Amino acid sequence: MLYFFIKRLIIICLTTALPTIAWAADSLIDAPSTKKIMHYILRDHATFEKVTPELTRRTVQAFLEEMDPHKTYLIKSSIEPYLTPSPEKLAQISKRIDNQDFSDFYHLLSKMQTSIEKMNQLDKKTYTSEGEELECFSALKTLEWGDNYQQLAQREAKIRALQIKSAEAFEIDTAERMSQRLDKRQRSMESKITTQSKKAFHAKAHELFLKSFAKSLDDHSSYFTAWEAEQYALQVQQHLFGIGAQLRDDLQGFTLVHVLENSPVQKHGEIKAGDMIIAVDHTPVVGMDIEEAVQLIRGPKGSHVHLTLLRNSPEGQKKLEADIIRDLINLKETRFHHSLIPFGNGNIAYLRLFSFYQDSESSSELDIQAALKAALKETNPLKGVLLDLRSNGGGLLEQSVKVAGLFLKKGIVASIKDSQNRLEHRRTFRAHPIWDGPLVILTDRASASAAEIVAGSLKDYGRAIIAGDEHTWGKGSYQVFTFNPMQSSKANPLGEYKVTRGLYYTVSGNSPQLLGIKSDIEIPSGLKATDLGESLVKHPIENQTIEPNFVDNLEDVHPFYRATMKRQYKHNRQHKLTVYDNLIPVLKSNSKKRIESNPDFQNFLSVIYKENLTKKDLQSYGLNDLAKEECIDILKDLILLEVEQKKAA
């Protein structure tokens, strides 16, 4: 018997472990295990407590879309009873699910198997991209289920033509190579469904069911296979144990397209970008999915992996053998970047944070703190800070609180409220901020979650000016994740889940859910013309508010600790500031004039609404980061205005 410890990582912070849960040792998930996982997901979810007819309807629709997302396999007549099921049929399906009977989903998966066989019997070379109107990828969202396999073959040809056209437009790949990649991907997907034993077939249906069930609760709840859970943890932590190279599937092997600085591959000295891996530990990887190859390459710190590579040279291909010692790889290039920008007799610190991460060796808070302290030690004084949170999708909530705390005195930064209406406050206890001077935060419509906590609370306290798109993404929910890679490097073979537990709120009592954080000064980005944001997802959770918490009475702290905390918390409290209130109109006016008179910015604004952008379009307004440049100018104005304000006082 395998014991499955659910270790909850609030996409946020580590919390106490859930009770031990027993699972069968077989990694093929069975019906009882599927039902058990359902139970735990519902127990933790913010709004759903049990399976309802509406949840069943959503799950069935999601199951169909999970199997056939582009509607290129299943014909309408084969799944008709499940497209608009009656209340009676939904009740029957719900009852069967409750009894651990997933026969409806076995039936649908068998229909998918049949459809794959039917589609592969067609001579697809006879079908062209003409016919059905499908001029851009956004049109995929409105496709209906097809009437026959010939129509689906035509649709598949059209989608493939769009994919190849996109690859060529951005010079990603040639049409021939892209077509080969698409063929390989398609064969891999089909083989996972068609070539299975009965037990594996049921396990695949259970996996697809749990994925569909979780995403039907809301758009941030998910079920992961073990591999997917480990990959998701990498995204949050931004580190891994491996060789430190970015790979590209080149059909005959996996090409190293980028070698990370100070990585095991770089330290080896004889391997370089452009080399192609053809075997790992003498196991050929040609024909493998990239996920399978990466699993072979990664492993525990200090362990050895043997690579067989090919290198192209004027004399022909050369075969290389290399023994690499795996190590911890911090993905610094996708974590954090900082630099100093000269201004007057001092500097501006530019801090680009890509996610909110934490591991045993570093964190977003510690990396930013080190950068700020280094800037403060420079001979030329630090004049202001630009914190760039564009396209920062979030990460660990606790890290967002600590990052905000670098710019605040003691006080509440964020609050979380779960389905049981339990309210917990997240505080910073720093008596003196690392930086209490001019601060501008640059955001865009892809800034979400933990990034919105930092931007929202610093704006609430009057400590920062927000510049960027009109508003951020609008993700005000928080999730718990059952896989904690800081306690175990391997996910449970039966999978892990991430479930929405509730909403979070900034110190003003407002949640960014659906609304986002509004900017004080708008700087349009390339995302301005796109349909992005929480309000556009399929199953959003409604926005709520709580009372403001600028005054903290420690009501969520246990009475036993409250008196002690009061004494520690008494002095150096962060109060709401108004120093920027009178400056924002001036800054906004100056920014508007600069943007209107900047030809590159005007060219940029003219192309972002084009339906089919090309690489040439993206270069028509120059190669500079226009939003960053404008935000630096805003910060320079702020620094000068604050100097004038202090003189006047």
Give a structural overview.
There is one protein chain. With about 650 residues, this protein is of the alpha+beta class. Among the domains are: about 190 residues, no CATH class; about 90 residues, Pdz3 Domain (Roll), CATH 2.30.42; about 170 residues, 2-enoyl-CoA Hydratase, Chain A, domain 1. Helices cover about 40% and strands about 20% of the residues. The protein has 19 helices and 23 strands. The strands form five sheets. Strands 2, 3, 5, 17, 18, 21 and 22 form a seven-stranded antiparallel beta sheet that branches. Strands 7, 8, 9, 10, 11 and 12 form a six-stranded antiparallel beta sheet that branches. It has a six-stranded mixed beta sheet with strand order 14-15-16-19-20-23, with helices on both faces. A hairpin with a 4-residue loop joins strand 7 and strand 8. It is globular. The N and C termini lie far apart (about 75 Å). About 40% of the residues are buried.
